[in-house]
Amino acid sequence: MPVRDDRAPVWAIWLLIAFGAAQPLAWLIAGGAPQRAAIVLPLLIVWIVLLVLASLATRRIVALWQQVTQTDRAHKATLGEVAQLQTQTAMLEIVARSVDVPLAFQALASRIARLVSCDRVGLALLSEDGQEFQTYTARVQDEERRSRPRPEIVFRMDRTLIGTVVRSREPLILASIEEAAPDYLDANVLFTAGFRSALIMPLVSKGRAVGTLNVVSRQPDAFAQVHVESLQAIAEILAVAWVAQQLQMSIGKYRTMEVMSEVTLSVAAEINSALQTIIGHCDLIERSYADPNLHRDLSTVVRQSQRIADLLEKMRVAAHERMREVADTMHQEGIPSSPEEWK
């Protein structure tokens, strides 16, 4: 319950004192009270005592009121920190179960909206080539009917607010979307949908921006620096989770390439072994029989076997080169090739 700025007890004390002082004074002026010093002096003493007590009471009440106000503000700040920690914990639990950033975003959109009052929460994730954004939206005011999020609009880096934020890696508070709508495509989309202000947070991991977390409101000038601070940790977690998801996908792709290359080498070795056996037997048969027609047929079999062996050799060379390319790419991307490199 917020503390009201109410100092009624202080005013009540001073009103009582004023009334108590005014009554004897009125008596003196009207001649209704004795004009002797023996009566006036005690009245003055009483007034002075009352004034001193009132001053002390006023100071005490004001001090207590300020203390209660500070306690209430600290309580609100603590509640905000607790809400942030709960959101971060929930996000970490979801990411730990499955590295799926859009799914985690959809599950936590309502919590984000409780931290920062808004009408809609959005997520923009940068593609691997760094040229496009896939955007996701969570309608926090209505119950989410989708089992998993789907990309809604694809934006380019150019002429978009999210592209500007990713390039600068700094949060952007947009007090009026209407002013930015003529110059930015995503601002125009938001303004057309009825939104009037926005806060765009960059998702930064290891100095690299990989997307943005967006909150929008139908009210103008709805966001301030305090909201940036509330969403900072969540944006960092989302950035780390997205980089981890991309890393996991890259590892899976490269591991598949490695397995395919290894299978190709293994099969090529088995086929080559069988071909060498065929060529050897053809040579033995040719030596055992002097039939020219048989020699001609055997020569054809040997020639085709050698052709297949040459093709297998080319496959082995290509597979080795592909594995080398995969290893180089993994090294450039910072993907560890062994468990020891994770340390």
What does this 3D model show about the protein?
The chain has 343 residues and is of the alpha+beta class. It folds into three domains: 8-76; 85-247, 2-Layer Sandwich (Beta-Lactamase); 249-342. It is built from eight helices and six strands; from the N terminus they run αααβββαβααββαα. The protein has helices at 8-30, 37-97, 101-115, 161-168, 177-180, 185-192, 225-288, 292-332, and strands at 120-126, 132-138, 154-156, 172-174, 197-205, 208-217. The chain has a six-stranded antiparallel β-sheet with strand order 3-2-1-6-5-4, sandwiched between helices. The chain is elongated.
Structure summary, number of beta strands: 6
Global outline: elongated
CATH class of the largest domain: Alpha Beta
The arrangement of helices and strands along the chain is: HHHEEEHEHHEEHH
CATH topology (level 3) name of the largest domain? Beta-Lactamase
Mean of residue pLDDT? 77
Q: What is the beta-strand fraction?
A: 5-15%
Give the count of structural domains. 3
Q: Taking Cα atoms only, what radius of gyration do you get, to the nearest Å?
A: 40 Å
- What composes the largest sheet? 6 strands, antiparallel
Number of helices: 8
| The CATH superfamily title of the largest domain | GAF domain
Structural class: alpha+beta
End-to-end separation: 50 Å
Summarize this, please?
With about 350 residues, the protein is an alpha+beta fold. It has eight helices and six strands; from the N terminus they run αααβββαβααββαα. The longest helix has about 60 residues, at about 225-290.
Q: Can you tag this structure with a few keywords?
A:
343 residues; alpha+beta; Beta-Lactamase; 6-stranded antiparallel sheet; 8 helices
